[in-house]
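Notes from the 1:1 (GR / supervisor)

We went over the backlog. Supervisor wanted to see one worked example end to end before approving the batch request, so GR pasted a single chain during the call. The sequence is below; no edits were made to it. Supervisor asked that the structure be written out right there so they could see what the output format looks like.
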Amino acid sequence: MASFNETKLKISVEETDLNSNRSVRLDRWLTDRIANNSDFPKISRTQLKNLIHSKCVRCDDKIIEDPSLQIRYGQLYTIQVPEPKLATPQPENIELNIVYEDEHLIVVNKSAGMVVHPAPGSSKGTMVNALLSHCGNTLSGIGGVRRPGIVHRLDKDTTGLLVVAKSDEAHQHLVHQFAAQTIKRTYEAIIWGVPDKPTDRIFFPIGRSRANRKKMAVVPKGGKKAATNYILTEQFGATASLIVCKLESGRTHQIRVHLNHIGHSLIGDPLYGSSRKISTRDDPNLKLAKEFKRQALHAKSLEFIHPFKQERVHFSVPLPSDMQTLLEALRKSC
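Structure output shown during the call:
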């Protein structure tokens, strides 16, 4: 039996909860019981352990601090979930290009120059600051903190689609989908040169560069598995190409690292790119490519299972104006 009052839940141990063949851990039992209570906020087992360690769970009015405690028939457990704390990042009234929004999640078309999450040196003007302002009280709290649930990121100067959770339950659903690699992400990239193969799978492990700790790199040992699939969609002589990339994994700087490794870095990439030795004296269009101010990478489409509708949803946005201008210039240069 369970009773619900605001953020407090009382659950008693029934005879049917016990397994005669083995003992039943408190954290496992509570997680299962909460999952079946539609009125109470969904809590993962890890979050429940944190609540127990934070003295938010009582057994017959006695504070419990051991998640591995074995439950007994007739015990009455009370769970008190604290009100979500205000996030450290502060809300800022920054315009967002919102592609889709409901009570569970929001899909944003990120502009170039916007950092996704606050970090040393970028504590203001981030997407999180903007989302805190835009969503306000519709954020129900991620991990006990009233903040947007960031499940994946785009580099500061990469444009395109991001999905952000507005509730803990939506956040857990999306995190699991990313872990299971069921979320489909498609990127458009403008690169130097033309790949040897019109389509290929780049499969090299990625880790921290030993030569430059600010960079990632393909490494022989200690890296994480990473796979990037690409298709050549347009080429501009031997100078440059437009490709579509699909990720099987989501390592830091993955597309940038993989393309650089095969000798076709992104045009404009300040960290991994190499400015080709191309004469631009008589061609202002090639000069535009040489002087492009950011990595020419755009998260074009995003497809995932909606956490509550339980149906696959698809979103797509066109190339931003600067990349469209770059393509037009490259076409003229051929």
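Supervisor's comment: The helical segments are 26-35, 45-53, 127-135, 168-180, 254-261, 284-290, 321-333.
Batch request approved.
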